[in-house]
């Protein structure tokens, strides 16, 4: 009950001054964010990109091992087939009939084809291995470059954050202190206007008979109402709360 009574006693001028003060503090926080710029997003993007390349390199390395294993298997096949061919050729010297000769000849022919097929596969796997090695080298080089970029961006961001962290924390504490002085519905309206405003300005001074936010001309009667400071007036074009610069000690 006491708070409601206190809210009724606060003049419109005081409400406007409080809102303007709140806007000033929030604008200072916005400037700090602008100073950091896109660095936080750039750092996050670089981190994601590096994770992606690390995953890609691991995939290439797995495929590289698979190719090496496949080449080794084909070499074993060649060795086994060569051993069989030598054995069959020795048996040819002791054949007893044409049937045995034909059988051994077909076995030699089959194993010879197996050797050719294995050699072909080795060439293919060797080429795959070469391509994979090149891809791994390129990816590692790129990964090294991007890691360097990330280190630079992080250092730059850490420097800026370090320089502005305390300032931002102090401003946020001041904002909290000012917000409790504003009646809830007015504060909610202020935040809604600020959120929709491109530059985050919810409260603007009148500049040369125009709105300080969108610069549209203000009708004479409305200019007079703003100067009197008896009610809260918003711009009919951009919706921002307009205030007389003299009220807050700003030269027009």
Explain how this protein is built.
- This protein is mostly helical and 252 residues long.
- It folds into two domains: 2-36 and 183-247, Helix Hairpins (Orthogonal Bundle); 39-163, Helix Hairpins (Orthogonal Bundle), CATH 1.10.287.
- It contains six helices and four strands; from the N terminus they run αααααββαββ.
- It has helices at residues 2-9, 12-36, 39-92, 98-179, 184-196, 220-228, and strands spanning 203-207, 210-211, 233-234, 241-243.
- Helix 2 (12-36) packs antiparallel against helix 4 (98-179) and helix 3 packs antiparallel against helix 4.
- The two termini are 40 Å apart.
- The model is unreliable at 1-7 (pLDDT under 50).
CATH domain topology of the largest domain: Helix Hairpins
Distance between the termini: 40 Å
Mean pLDDT: 91
Which word captures the global form? rod-shaped
User: How many distinct helices?
Assistant: 6
CATH architecture of the largest domain: Orthogonal Bundle
Strand content: under 5%
What structural class do the secondary elements suggest? Answer: mainly alpha
Helix percent band: over 70%
Q: Can you identify the CATH class of the largest domain?
A: Mainly Alpha
SSE string, helix = H, strand = E?
Answer: HHHHHEEHEE
């Amino acid at each position: 009950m006491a708070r409601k009574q206190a809210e009724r006693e606060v003049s419109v001028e005081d409400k406007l001054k409080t809102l303007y003060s709140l806007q000033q503090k929030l604008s200072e926080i916005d400037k700090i964010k602008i100073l950091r710029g896109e660095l936080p997003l750039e750092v996050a993007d670089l981190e994601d990109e590096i994770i992606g390349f690390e995953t890609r390199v691991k995939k290439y390395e797995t495929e590289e091992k698979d190719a090496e294993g496949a080449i080794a298997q084909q070499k074993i096949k060649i060795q086994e087939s060569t051993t069989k061919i030598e054995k069959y050729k020795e048996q040819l010297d002791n054949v007893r009939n044409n049937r045995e000769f034909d059988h051994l000849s077909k076995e030699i022919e089959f194993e010879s084809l197996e050797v050719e097929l294995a050699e072909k596969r080795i060439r293919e796997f060797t080429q795959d291995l070469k391509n994979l090695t090149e891809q791994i080298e390129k990816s590692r080089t790129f990964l090294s470059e991007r890691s360097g970029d990330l280190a630079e961006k992080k250092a730059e961001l850490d420097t800026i954050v370090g320089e502005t962290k305390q300032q931002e924390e102090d401003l946020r504490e001041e904002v909290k202190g000012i917000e409790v002085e504003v009646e809830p519905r007015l504060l909610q309206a202020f935040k809604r206007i600020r959120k929709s405003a491109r530059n985050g300005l919810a409260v603007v001074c009148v500049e040369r008979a125009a709105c300080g936010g969108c610069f549209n001309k203000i009708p004479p009667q409305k200019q007079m109402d703003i100067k009197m400071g008896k009610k809260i007036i918003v711009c009919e074009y951009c919706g921002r709360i307009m205030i007389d610069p003299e009220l807050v000690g700003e030269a027009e």
